[in-house]
């Protein structure tokens, strides 16, 4: 890992909690990167295994930032943002491997276009490298009801990577598994929201990056392989709960007041359909997750409204412009009722 003052410093921030089993693949690949000016910082969320000591002994080039509390994804990164020195931050999971030249395309795009606030590489599955990875694929999108999907993964259908999404493209959100972020953007948007705890934290931040007038991009020339599901399994109660809760939380924060009533009615209708389907299939965990998600919103409405006021104060872009970046229909209805299971099919018929 060399330093070259002609290149902007990139701070690669790797979050770890009892993740020793992932660290060799992660740090070995990061240390082999060909970019000439970067630092690697492992953010440890109070691990109880020996991953900190293991990293200190085996990877002395990796800086270690220890949080005094395990306050979740957002708090860990908010603390690390204040510690890191880079012009650019990389929010990176520990269950990844990167290609040697992964940083150069990301830096190049941001250096040549200051309107870009965040970018992401193409994420492929570490276990099935011919397939996109669930959490990021080739860039994230959002429908107008708050449901997230990607170029390469719709709901639970994951496409094979055949080069169909290899173009540099504007996206709505960049994955928290490997997000390359312009550090100064946080001055305009604020940090990650600690009340999200798990899931949608990066999408919420990206929504605010959009509201601040920046673009978000995917650069598929940069490639990262992600294990995925290393912390919370995709169909677990926790995953279902946090995704439902936080997607509604985010939309209530970010939409203009005039668009809230239609969103609330539409989202209740769609989640009501989901509830009915889950009941018919005896999927009690999904039912419980939906109910508890809305109960949290109801009992914490004053908190939601306080956060909403802060977001509306910082916005520079109207919903009219934001809606142009969103998928205009329900991605769930397109998937389940019309059988549109790939990003290409969604765009072709939208």
Overview of this structure, please?
By secondary structure, the chain is of the alpha/beta class. It folds into two domains: about 10-225, Spore Coat Polysaccharide Biosynthesis Protein SpsA, Chain A (Alpha-Beta Complex); about 235-350, no CATH class. About 40% of the residues lie in helices and about 20% in strands. It contains 13 helices and 13 strands. Strands 1, 2, 3, 4, 5, 6, 11, 12 and 13 form a nine-stranded mixed beta sheet that branches. Strands 7-8 form a two-stranded antiparallel sheet. Strand 9 and strand 10 form a beta hairpin. Helix 6 (about 200-210) packs parallel to helix 7 (about 235-255), helix 7 (about 235-255) packs across helix 10 (about 300-315) and helix 8 (about 260-280) packs antiparallel against helix 9. The N and C termini lie far apart (about 45 Å). The model has no long low-confidence stretch (mean pLDDT about 95).
Biggest pleated-sheet summary? 9 strands, mixed
How far apart the termini lie comes to 46 Å
CATH topology of the largest domain: Spore Coat Polysaccharide Biosynthesis Protein SpsA, Chain A
What is the mean predicted local confidence, pLDDT? 94
Oligomeric state of the chains in view: single chain
Architecture per CATH nomenclature, i.e. the level-2 architecture of the largest domain: Alpha-Beta Complex
How big a fraction of the residues is strand?
15-25%
Radius of gyration: 20 Å
Overall tally of structural domains: 2
Shape category: globular
**Helix/strand order:** EHEHEHEEHEEEEEEEHHEHHHHHHH
Count of extended strands: 13
Count of helix runs:
13
What name goes with the CATH superfamily of the largest domain? Answer: Spore Coat Polysaccharide Biosynthesis Protein SpsA, Chain A
Q: Unreliable segments (pLDDT under 50, ≥5 consecutive)?
A: none
Structural category: alpha/beta
CATH classification class of the largest domain? Alpha Beta
Helix content: 40-55%
């Amino acid at each position: 890992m060399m330093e070259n003052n002609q290149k902007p410093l990139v701070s690669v921030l790797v979050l770890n909690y009892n993740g020793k089993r992932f660290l060799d693949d992660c740090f070995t690949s990061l240390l082999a990167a060909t970019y000439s000016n970067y630092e690697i910082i492992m953010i440890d969320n109070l691990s109880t295994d020996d991953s900190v000591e293991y990293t200190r002994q085996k990877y002395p080039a990796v800086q270690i930032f220890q949080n005094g509390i395990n306050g979740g994804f957002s708090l860990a990164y908010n603390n690390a943002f204040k510690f890191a020195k880079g012009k650019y931050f990389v929010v990176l999971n520990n269950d990844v491997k990167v290609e040697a030249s992964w940083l150069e395309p990301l830096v190049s795009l941001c250096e040549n276009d200051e309107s870009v606030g965040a970018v992401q590489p193409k994420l492929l599955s570490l276990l099935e490298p011919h397939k996109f990875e669930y959490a990021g694929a080739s860039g994230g999108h959002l429908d107008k009801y708050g449901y997230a999907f990607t170029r390469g993964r719709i709901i639970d259908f994951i496409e094979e990577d055949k080069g169909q999404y290899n173009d540099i493209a504007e996206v709505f959100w960049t994955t928290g598994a490997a997000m390359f972020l312009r550090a100064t953007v946080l001055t305009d948007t604020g940090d990650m929201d600690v009340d999200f705890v798990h899931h949608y934290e990066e999408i919420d931040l990206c929504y605010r990056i959009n509201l601040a007038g920046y673009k978000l991009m995917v650069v598929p020339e940069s490639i990262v392989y992600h294990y995925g599901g290393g912390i919370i399994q995709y169909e677990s109660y926790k995953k279902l709960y946090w995704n439902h809760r936080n997607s509604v939380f985010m939309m209530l924060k970010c939409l203009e007041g005039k668009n809230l009533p239609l969103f609330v009615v539409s989202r209740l209708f769609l989640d009501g359909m989901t509830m009915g389907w889950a009941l018919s299939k005896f999927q009690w965990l999904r039912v419980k997750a939906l109910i508890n998600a809305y109960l949290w919103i109801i009992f914490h409405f004053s908190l939601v409204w306080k956060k909403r006021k802060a977001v509306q104060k910082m916005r520079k872009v109207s919903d009219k412009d934001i809606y142009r970046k969103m998928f205009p229909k329900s991605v769930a209805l397109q998937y389940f009722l019309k059988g549109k299971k790939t990003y290409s099919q969604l765009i072709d018929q939208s």
